[in-house]
Amino acid sequence: MERIRVSKVEDVYLLRRGTRFDGTLHLMPHHIVFSYLPSKPADAPPDVRPPRQKEVWITYPMINYCCLKSCPPVMRQQPSIRIRCRDFTFFAFFFPDEKKAREVYDSIRALSCKIGRLDKLLAFSYQPKPPEDRFNSWDIYDARREFKRLGISPKDTEKGWRISEINVEYKYSKTYPALIAVPSKVSDSVLRYAGAYRSRQRIPALVYRHPLNNCSITRSSQPTPGITGNRNPQDERLVAAIWATNRGWNPAPTPDAARSTADLAIENGSSADSSFVGVVDAEAVNSGRIIADDLSVSTESDDNAPKIYGAQQRNLIVDARPTVNAYAMQAVGLGSEKMDHYPGAEKAYLGIDNIHVMRKSLNTVIDALKESDLTSFPPNQQLLAKSGWVKHTANILDGVALIARRVGIMHSHALIHCSDGWDRTSQLSALSQILLDPYYRTMEGFIVLVEKDWLSFGHMFRHRTGFLSHEKWFSIENERIERKVDGQSGGNAFENALRGAKGFFNRQNESNESLNQLPETNSTENVGDVSDAAATKPSSKIGAAEEHRITKINELSPVFHQFLDCVYQLQYQHPTRFEFSERFLRRLLYHLYSCQYGTFLFDNEKERMEARAKERTRSVWDYFLCRKQEFLNPKYDPEVDDSVRGKERMIFPRKGEARWWAECFGRTDDEMNLYGPQLPPSLTPQTSNVSNGRSGANTPLRQESIVTGTETAEGATGAGTTADLPPTHAVGERTSSVSAASPTPFDAAAALGQDLKQGLVAGMGKLKIGGVSPRPSTDSSRSPPRLSTDTSSQNGKERSRSRSEDTRGELEVEMR
Question: If pLDDT is split at 50, 70 and 90, which confidence band does 727 have?
Fold first, then answer.
């Protein structure tokens, strides 16, 4: 290829974990290949056969950091290229001269981030060898076949659900599958009107029906009530029809019918969360309120509703976002359900952070490991603890346990959404089904689950993974230092302040996670100049693979990686309940980034169809199915018996026992889990008197509730409600009329706008820009406006300002 300036470089040596390997570096169209002869063991006899040549293969999309370090001859050091890969492998290549190193660096950079099109990736030219070439796993998932397994088909008995073809041509919702399951009593006409109320027309659709109690897990995107509190009767009717699908349902007798839910919960290790299965806080019962730690309390009574296991059915809407973030979205026309219009259910806000927080968390983990090429030092434990990665994983598992108990034990329905319903929603939905159904813990079932909840329901793999690389991931060490010295980010204070203000107030939010709700906005990203973007639109006949694209760094996030990490946690805690091994998960994560297969290259089912991925690429499942024996768990016990402890149908994560997935990060268990998921308080960089034993169970994560707020038709609790209203100085006289049940969306919007304005004016005043200076508080010539009938003290103002800053910070993160 013309991008390869040099195809072979000899006398190169590689450093990995401080160990040196001498060999030859080859640059190929889709791989870096380093071949070397391993040295003989020191204790090997002299007549032993020489070791065979070994090779290290690195695909270009796997690279997320590449730095050239050039060394002048006077330094007597060889120039090097350091590479970090997304599978947490680290390499340092040292070259005999500067010219060779520069040519290799330029070639890698051109082959990584200058191709601009998906069809230039390895997947579109990969030809498998036997026996893999005999497999065709594109048909392993069929939506109708999976719905039939769940008991939904025209020939089956009526379960309250039907398969709708409203999106068969992807005109109804571009990011939804062609076939969706909806309540039988809801017509396609109702669906058309209901779609206008959900972000990107991602209406509540079925992903799982429990075979024993006919309860369901449905998923959607956020509604769009906005500040004015818009309603949509069709959406309310659709959700009500979902709640009614198991009305009058008579499940077949099961061996565990006589057992109590408390027994089931305790045997599955959930006694710490017993409030979810019937243990009620006495104060909450007496006061008639619902607290965040007890979502099982019912404040309604229905004499006609069936009493199952002695508990009232209580349907649940799960908003995966923190409460403040969900309320803040109302300021831009989005938001969450107003529970007054969705009776018979309650809503739980989960404190699961968004894609930007997760990306930053994983980057901190990488910082703790990044010297793994040059040295054999253990990971930086302080940075591992600071990353919060294990805490984020534990939060997701706690939310999943809440959903699974609600469906499997309390026999209720669950509707899950976050913002657009393709990141946190996919995690919660898929993991909940793994807890509930043993089928998804087999290799075939897990493949079907990934195809259904991640691929067909439109998780944006291309956006979140960034297969086409980015220029920022490539750098030359000395040039990078020179650019910093030049001070390109400098300039006078006035220009910087105006640039910052313009960037904050006028920037386009490109995050599909939150504000930018136009489906067309992020469907294509042209590489051409901005001035040409409006004039040149790609033809609708061109598939997604042929369109020129760039990687948006702010869209990247390890969402699917987190899902696999959560599956590993369950697998580690229940070693006999999964048919596949830990290595299966690790290799799946590798092939997410390798771009060797076409499975994960696109954002949704529509893109895969238009690009004809089935005809032009191979499925990643071919790789695993042709080597199935290599990925099976030898401890797997397929028997399911609810009368035998340890063999129940459902499993649950053990709270507080999340740990590092050491194998995924290329480290030993002792290195990653030496101090458990979080460092003991006494551990500092200066102290080393810590026990050498594995203490993963001795320093568990703090027991914090995943639920940050609840809401029903009767009232609300948690963050964002009366206890945490926006600051009174931003609301004015309206504060006295705020409802005691929940805040109005105007409060959050007004607080944000007022605080941002005051912050900008104060900042410009400190810089003495444009004659604006902070107005002194002791100005006697003008009395401050009275914004509240109640005169607060200075301490009250400070508390109000602190709450305002916290709320604004949460909102800014969600909007970014």
Answer: very low
Query: What is the pLDDT, as a whole number, of residue 41?
Result: 74
Catalytic residue among 66, 85, 215, 418: 418
Closest CA to 429 of 452, 461, 453: 453
The H-assigned helical ranges of 466-557 are 477-486, 493-506, 530-533
DSSP per-residue codes, 227-285: TTT---HHHHHHHHHHHGGGTT--PPP-TTTTS-HHHHHHHTT-GGGGGGGT---HHHH
Q: Tell me phi and psi for residue 16, to 5 degrees.
A: -135, 120
Query: Is the CA virtual torsion 107, 108, 113, 117 positive or negative?
Result: positive
For the chain, how far is it from start to end, CA to CA, in angstroms?
A: 39
3-state secondary structure of 54: strand
Helix axes 559-573, 355-369, angle to 10 degrees: 70
CA atoms of 138 and 597, how far apart (whole Å): 11
316 pairs with which residues across the strands?
Answer: 346, 414
CB half-sphere exposure, 746, CA atoms < 13 A: 10
How many Cα neighbours within 13 Å face the side chain of 738? 25
Please list, residue by residue across 614-626, b when 16 or more beta carbons sit within 10 angstroms of its beta carbon and e when fewer do: eeebbbbbbbbbb
Cα distance between residue 595 and residue 601, in whole Å: 7
Report the distance separating Cα 374 and Cα 288, nearest Å: 62
**CA quadruple 469, 472, 473, 479: dihedral positive or negative?**
positive
* pLDDT at residue 59, rounded to an integer: 95
SS3 content of the chain, % helix, strand, coil (to 5): 40, 10, 50
Encoded tokens for 7:
């195809």
Question: Which residues make beta-bridge pairs with 711?
Answer: 347, 716
Give the helix ranges, DSSP H, for 138-248.
143-149, 188-195, 233-243
Q: What is the C-alpha to C-alpha distance for residues 283 and 783, in angstroms, rounded to an integer?
A: 46
- DSSP classification of residue 614: H
Q: Which has more pLDDT, 376 or 492? A: 376
What are the backbone dihedrals phi and psi of residue 357, each rounded to the nearest 5 degrees, phi first? -65, -40
- Residue where the block lists tokens 């969360």: 273
Instruction: Determine whether 418 is an active site residue.
Output: yes
Per-residue pLDDT tens digits for 574-586: 999 999 999 999 9
763 SS3 class: helix
Q: Tell me the per-residue pLDDT of 242-270, one tens digit each, with 9 for 90 and over.
A: 999 987 665 544 444 334 333 333 333 43
Alpha-carbon distance values, 223 to 197, 202, 230, 331, 449 (Å): 6, 9, 9, 13, 25
Take residue 335 and report the two structure tokens written for it. Answer: 């938001």
Give yes or no for a contact between 294 and 284, defined as CB atoms under 8 angstroms apart. Answer: yes
State the CB neighbour count (10 A cutoff) for residue 588: 23
pTM of the model: 0.77
Res. 88 pLDDT band, cuts 50 70 90: very high
- Mapped onto helix, strand or coil, the DSSP state of residue 300 is coil
What 3-state DSSP class applies to 803? helix
78-92, 287-301, 391-405: segment of lowest average pLDDT: 287-301
How many of the other CB atoms lie within 10 Å of CB of 798? 11
The set of long-range contacts for 255-261, using a CB threshold of 8 Å and a minimum separation of 24, is 255/641, 255/642, 255/643, 256/642, 256/643, 256/648, 259/642, 260/309, 260/310, 261/309, 261/310, 261/311, 261/409, 261/410
The residues with which 56 forms a beta bridge, in sequence order, are: 34
Nearest to 206 by CA among 171, 236, 241: 241
Element (H, E) at 57: strand 54-59
Residue 154 token pair: 């025209």
* Site of tokens 């070397």: 36
